[in-house]
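#lab-general

N.A. 3:47 PM
ok so I finally got the sequence cleaned up, no stray characters, all 119 residues accounted for. can someone with queue access submit it? mine expired

B.Y. 3:52 PM
send it over

N.A. 3:53 PM
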Amino acid sequence: MADQTLEILDRYLADGRPCDAVTNFLFPKARSPVGALTSWGICDIFTKRARQSGLPLDGVSSYALRHSFAMRLLGRGVGVKTIGDLLGHHSLESTCVYLRIETDMLRTVALPVPGIVGF
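B.Y. 4:20 PM
back already:
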């Protein structure tokens, strides 16, 4: 999965990114004004492409895409700070919005409670 993701990102950097991009942003806007894509821009693009795909994606949003990405990273042991950096967040609180608590993950770090056997 990671190899496929890197391959897709490499292909985007080689062929998909606007060649006249004079910015350090990974995903710059294709039209003026030059800069990073905003959250609203991403929502608009996602909604348009989801509609064009013809797939039954009613109620699915770019938030769900970011949430799934964050949860996959968390499940693979990536730290919350790194996930936040990848999502472009400035605070851990913003990142935590995309992460829900996984009961199985909590069980691996839970301490035994005296007098209680098992969970």
